[in-house]
């Protein structure tokens, strides 16, 4: 199997604080991890692509200084929402890529998501 | 820029009916297409993955087809059950930022009424 976990599953914080979300691939090594956010009744929007040992690549419109991503090992990536505000409240989902026989058969496995509520 | 559209946005059917969910995408240069299921407040569960060279994939009561040239895919669910109630997401894979990235549609929310 291929299992991806996220911690915490739910977090409530005050405006101005920072929140760290962890994404772990439990039974495989993931050279690439992705971070998405999902607003109610909206699609998953890719925020950034995280490659182990290098800086994350952020999508247009995503503030890299606000959403800090660290992919320190082949099984762990973290997303830190700095100085969180109510508009950052969302459902954050990570995914990890498990390599297949060729790049075209690489498969993304998704974590269960983290519900962030900023008061 | 790739855009993925899913129709309908919501669907309500009585138990036992067969149904079809639609997905269209604007850029046909894809590597694969996936259908996911998402339960409320949960992550994604992959249902079917169709490689760009394939026309369809089947898993149990689910059948997904892909017409890459016309930018369309359908997910057919046979003999629907209340447990099928969820949001179904379609996503296409393309190369970007050194890896294969997924672009998602907004999903179709399915309600199967007992």
Element-by-element helix/strand order of chain B: EEEEEEEEEEE
Q: Which class best fits the helix and strand makeup of chain A?
A: mainly beta
Largest sheet of chain B: 6 strands, mixed
Globally, the shape of chain A reads globular
Q: Identify the overall geometry of chain B.
A: globular
Can you tell me the residue ranges of chain B where pLDDT is under 50 for at least 5 consecutive residues? none
Number of continuous helical runs of chain A = 0
In percent, how much strand structure appears in the residues of chain A?
A: over 45%
Q: Distance N terminus to C terminus of chain A?
A: 38 Å
In short:
Chain A has 119 residues and is mostly beta strands. Chain A contains no helices and eleven strands. In chain A, the strands form two sheets. In chain A, strands 2, 4, 5, 6, 9, 10 and 11 form a seven-stranded mixed sheet that branches. A four-stranded antiparallel sheet of chain A has the order 1-3-8-7, with no helix packed on it.
Give your account of this protein's structure:
The complex is a heterodimer of chains A (119) and B (114). Chain A has 119 residues and is mostly beta strands. In chain A, 0% of the residues lie in helices and 53% in strands. Chain A is built from no helices and eleven strands. In chain A, strands 2, 4, 5, 6, 9, 10 and 11 form a seven-stranded mixed beta sheet that branches. In chain A, strand 5 and strand 6 form a beta hairpin. Chain A starts with a strand and ends with a strand. The relative contact order of chain A is 0.32. By secondary structure, chain B is mainly β. In chain B, strands 2, 4, 5, 9, 10 and 11 form a six-stranded mixed beta sheet that branches. Chain B has a five-stranded antiparallel beta sheet with strand order 1-3-8-7-6, with no helix packed on it. The relative contact order of chain B is 0.33. The model of chain B has no long low-confidence stretch (mean pLDDT 94). The chains are: A mainly beta (119), B mainly beta (114). Chains A and B meet through strand 5, strand 9 and strand 10 of A and strand 5, strand 9 and strand 10 of B.
